[in-house]
Amino acid sequence: xxxxxxxxxxxxxxxxxxKTAVYVNGRLxxxxxxxxxxxxxxxxxRRDGLLSSQTNFAFSRKxxxxxxxxxxxxxxxxxxxxxxxxxxxxxxxxxxxxxxxxSWTDLIKTGVVEYLDSEEExxxxxxxPTDKEITEEHSHVxxxxxxxxxxxxxxxxxxxxxxxxxxxxxxxMSKQSLGVYSTNYNIRMDSRAHILFYPQAPLAQTQPYKTxxxxxxxxGQNLVVAITSYRGYxxxxxxxxxxxxxxxxxxxxxxxxxxxTEERRYPGGQKDKFELPQPVVSGYRDEKQxxxxxxxxxxxxxxxxxxxxxxxxxxxxxxxxxxxxxFGIAEEKKRENSVTVKNGEEGIVDSVMLTESLSGNKxxxxxxxxxxxxxxGDKFASxxxxxxxxxxxxxxxxxxxxxxxxxxxxIINPHAIPSRMTAGHLLEMIGGKAACMNGNLVDATPFQxxxxxxxxxxxxxxxxxxxxxxxxxxxxxxxxxxxxIFLGVIxxxxxxxxxxxxxxxxxxxxxxxxxxxxxxxxAREGGLRFGEMERDCLIGYGxxxxxxxxxxxxxxxxxxxxxxxCGSIAVYDHLKKREYCPLCDSTNLSKVELSYAFKLLLDEIxxxxxxxxLMLKDKA
Length: 620
What we know:
A hairpin with a 5-residue loop joins strand 23 (347-356) and strand 24. The strands form eleven sheets. The protein has a six-stranded mixed β-barrel. Strands 5, 6, 7, 8 and 9 form a five-stranded mixed β-sheet that branches. Strands 10-14-24-23-16 form a five-stranded antiparallel β-sheet, with no helix packed on it. The chain is of the alpha+beta class and 620 residues long. It has five domains: 20-143, Hypothetical Protein Ta0175, Chain: A, domain 2 (Alpha-Beta Complex); 167-252 and 375-494, DNA-directed RNA polymerase, subunit 2, domain 6 (Dna-directed Rna Polymerase Ii 140kd Polypeptide, Chain: B, Domain 6, Beta Barrel); 257-372, CATH 2.40.50.150; 508-553, RNA polymerase alpha subunit dimerisation domain (DCoH-like), CATH 3.90.1800.10; 557-607, DCoH-like. The protein is 20% helix and 26% strand. Helix 9 runs parallel beside helix 10 (452-461). It is extended, with a radius of gyration of 36 Å.
């Protein structure tokens, strides 16, 4: 049978050199001859209010593509439209807005303000920061230069004078600062909460800070700060703090922690019970730990509690339905399951709340309050990313003082300034000093706040040196310090990294069931990890006995019986009271000290079918 010849199909190539592909929300809908004209027509219709202000257009000349975006979730920013080198937001329009005759919606409908998404902004927007900088080439102008910053950055003072990494740090740390997070904190039962005593509004405030009303819930205090060294106690980023100022409650805070528990129900009708546990209960604690409990098993408010004190007495049914007693009678024995203060913590019971959970069970919440006084190791930071921990609480009489008797609350190291390039920190110090004298708040809004020369003029007016430097006298010797020291007032924040909540030490304690090594973490009374790098240090120093002590004696040392014939781990038969090798039945065994984790490794190797052997030889 003759094979039929297949006809070759002709490939038709469509060339669209002059056409522009049009996409709506990422889907190709067709082609248009003049893409640039279509873009301008659509944009003009949007500005005239004929198209939705939610729509954005972007025309790419290189790829000949026009994107029309109407979908949700796009990040969009408002800009004032510029035509022929002039802003459409004229002075006449500004007056109408101030009088309330024109609203924000009216500005959008009339095309004075338009929202641009990232694509349209990238392709078609040339934005001027201010009206003064507009040229013929510009298409838009910022409503306010500060709007290029986010919410957090816009509340920071003089950010345009700082390096960008420090601004990032200042943002992160302003979220960690202690203040008054909620005005009804005393009736709330949050799991953890910090409240700063006597918080103050900063002397240097930005316009967004005022608009957002952050001054109503401030998170810091204005401190007199000197930039100098103090006998080595503020080396690096450490700070020296005035002990007398701390005694007057400077930067003092309260820490609230809530413990909760409920009477859970179990299958079979059993349930937990809040009560004062009896000594016959399994797992009964020391009698002293129950001293604050009432008859109902719940602690009395304002009781002073220490680590491991019971807050809520609770008994639970046994894990197994029946347990055989010593007399062979099956009985249900309760076990102790109380809520206690965590190890390393103490305080005063602030309040107790009794309620019901969603499942209808009895629920108790106990809030414990403790006062946190600044101590060496606590973390503080300015709003310029200049963070540091307290190195010394110095008595006021030992600290340097000015001619008029002003003693700094805080002394920071001069080396913290040049390499970090936080000129804003110095500017806020001079501004804060001037604000203290003239009684006016400093406008620290980015790009448009008060300027340095204004602060200098005000300082000179009040008899200070224009650069903020002063002659100080040594508090210990009483002698004049020859060098002029930069002294000013700046807003400092106390961060929630408190040494009292992190301090951890262990001598003996619990070990893991699997590896026999100490548990991990402060909450579990764990050991401090001696890692690979620490091991390398001891090897480098040749301190072999110290290495052995850390990694064997103080960790998971165990003694194993090793068969000298085949090298496997031998066993001890408790019934026959004999030691033997289970592999070759040899009794020629040796006791070897080794790490339990190593023994575990050998067992795991055996489990995958590999036989590891320990070949023994006498110590040289």
